[in-house]
């Protein structure tokens, strides 16, 4: 599939902590994109100027996305729900989301939105600053600092506090848009963003995101609040 170039919005917002919110009406699932060309190259791709138009899915990534679509369909049918698909506007995430949408439509499952997938810049990959475009071994240097301080911006990276805030704002926004009709909401995004978002559901500091179980590519995982 060909992704048209989208306007590049502000990359980062002011860092704020994740705050408590009202109960959610829908069920939410994290879905990391399928294997990407950046994964194969071993590079960090977090710049929207590049990642919205390049570093799409690999051949294996497309197969993973199609398999993920089957998992989504099974969950939707079992729960009697429609499928709401919300994704990062990065090419690899959008392609995965489109594969999920195609699978749901082929199975006769109702989808939201009706005319495509719902893109949110709040689900973009965390910005990795000085490590962007370089080898993925840079992740570990950033994660070591994350564990010490959720607000750090060393190496010019986006703080985990900010990622947590912006990603959960997407959840709250979508929840209000969907209303009371029953949906399972599939959040198609990136490894770090989804790991960090899970801390908000688990009611732990976002600095602890690497303590959570690793989320493999194209794997569906339900996000449940710790109190649920």
Q: In brief, what are we looking at here?
A:
The protein is α/β, with parallel strands linked by helices and 228 residues long. It contains seven helices and six strands.
What are its keywords?
228 residues; alpha/beta; six-stranded mixed sheet; globular; His_Pase_superF_clade-1; Phosphoglycerate mutase; signal; His_PPase_superfam
Question: Can you characterise this structure?
Answer:
The protein has 228 residues and is of the alpha/beta class. It is 38% helix and 12% strand. The protein has seven helices and six strands, in the order βαααβαββααβαβ. Strands 1, 2, 3, 4, 5 and 6 form a six-stranded mixed sheet that branches. Helix 3 (59-79) crosses helix 4 (91-106) and helix 6 (160-178) packs across helix 7.
Which percent range describes the beta-strand content? 5-15%
Main β-sheet description: 6 strands, mixed
Mean pLDDT: 91
Class derived from helix and strand content: alpha/beta
Helix share, percent: 25-40%
Assembly of the depicted chains: single chain
Give me the count of strands: 6
Protein name: Phosphoglycerate mutase
Pfam family, one: His_Phos_1
InterPro entries: His_Pase_superF_clade-1 (IPR013078), His_PPase_superfam (IPR029033)
Keywords: Signal
